[in-house]
Structure formats: C-alpha cells, structure tokens
Amino acid sequence: MSIYYDTETTKVKRPNNNYRPGSLSTVFTDEQLDLLASVMHTKKYSAGTHLFWEGDDANAVYWILKGRVKLRKSASDGKDLLLSILQPDDMIADIDAWDTTHRYTAETIDKVEVGIIPRLQLEMLMVKYGDFAYRYAMWMGLIQRKTESKLRDLLMGGKNGALASTLIRLCNSFGETQANQHIHIDIKLTNNELAELVGTTREGINRLLATMKRDGIICSESTGYLKVTNLDALKDMAGCPICPTCPKEICRL
User: Fold this and answer.
1) 209-214: long-range contacts (C-beta < 8 A, 24 or more apart)?
2) What are the chain's domains?
3) Given a cut of 80, is residue 128 above it in pLDDT?
4) Across the strands, what pairs with 175?
5) 175-189 confidence digits (pLDDT tens)
6) Is 117 buried (19+), middle (13-18) or exposed (0-12) by CB count in 10 A?
7) What pTM value is reported for the model?
C-alpha cells in the first residue's frame, strides 16, 4: 500500500476501497498516484458543508480520501438535479480550458477528507509525465461514458426506467449482497434526493417506489435503507442490454 505525504510530517494512506471499479486506483498506477499526492494538501469538512459552490473559480481538483460527496446542479427554475454521489478514491475535476468556474456544487454527506491538488500543479504533472497525462485522459473518458449512459437512461427510459436504472447504479456503487441474494443499498437517501437523481418530483418517486414495493422488487428496511429484492426485474424495467453488458465501471453513480 502506498503512503502519501501532504506535508513533511503528515502521512495520508490511500483510501481502502478494495480497487472499486472506476476508482482512481484502477486507472492510475501507484507511482502516478504518488505524483498526485506529492502536490496536494489535505482538508477536512464536516457533514452538510460545501467543498465549493456552482460558479466558484475552479482552480483545483479534489481527491476524496474519506466520506461521501454529492454533486448538485441548479436549474433556472430553482430545482436541483443530483448529478452523482462520490466516495473514497473518486476525484472531482471540474476544470477545462473554456470555463474557469465550477459547473455544479459539491456538498458533503458525512465527515469528509479530501486531497486538494492545485490546477497549475496538475497541469505541470501532465506536461512533465506523458504516461500520467495518458492515464488522466483515460479517466476523463471513463467519466464521460458514465455521464452519457446516465443521460441515455434518464432521457430514453421514461420515469419508471430512469428510477430502475438509478437503483441499479446505487446497487453497483453502494450495494451489499446478502445471503438471500437481496442487495442492501448502504446509503440512506430521501425520496426527494431520489427525485433529484431521476429528474422528477418527489410525489412521482413516491408513486413509483410504492408500485415497486407492491410488486416485490424493492423493500424498505426498518433503518430507512432500501433493499433490492429482484434485480432482474429492475434490469427489465431499465432496458438493460444483455450483450454487450455495461462495464461495471460505467453502470455506477
């Protein structure tokens, strides 16, 4: 396991994610992650605070070391769209050559620790190390494919298919398979947050969830978490392809 240094006295260990599909550790080599860590400093945030707001200057990328972060996009009518939920060993890189401001807001779900890499330092790494720049381009391509697949499901599957797709992605991102093959989704989301993920109203989500529960596709645990009891039914509703199937790195939040 690699050890990272944000100062000469503070050691930061890589997030323990068991090489979760699509995480930084599955795209970059240990040496390349060491390069990132050599130019970063760490910062801790309490639950319910913001790393940045939509419209702020985008002058750094954020490597999530601990905790979970929600990415939200505000619409002109005041509604919010929940774009993604990130976890340890994910990175927020909302920078490009045409727009120097953040296009969404990053809000912490629980206590979060991030490694902050200044944009200039990241660009210098890519100029100096061609293999690092290549891996970074691969990672950006992965993020783009994930975004495209979510948009496809939201736009072409209808509200029922969009919710089914979102639940499948939650299973792939936060699911814990139990002995009876039911999948416990280890993140507690309100119906309003599910509505923001799907792009519909809370009332619509209430009706769709009630139908799925009645049909035995999902159920609510006493602790408030959701459990998927019939994953194949969700795949049918979402129109999941049989061949080729979506890579595990793509079908995620």
Assistant:
1) 209/163, 212/163
2) 3-151 (2.60.120.10), 157-238 (1.10.10.10)
3) yes
4) 185
5) 999 888 899 999 999
6) buried
7) 0.87
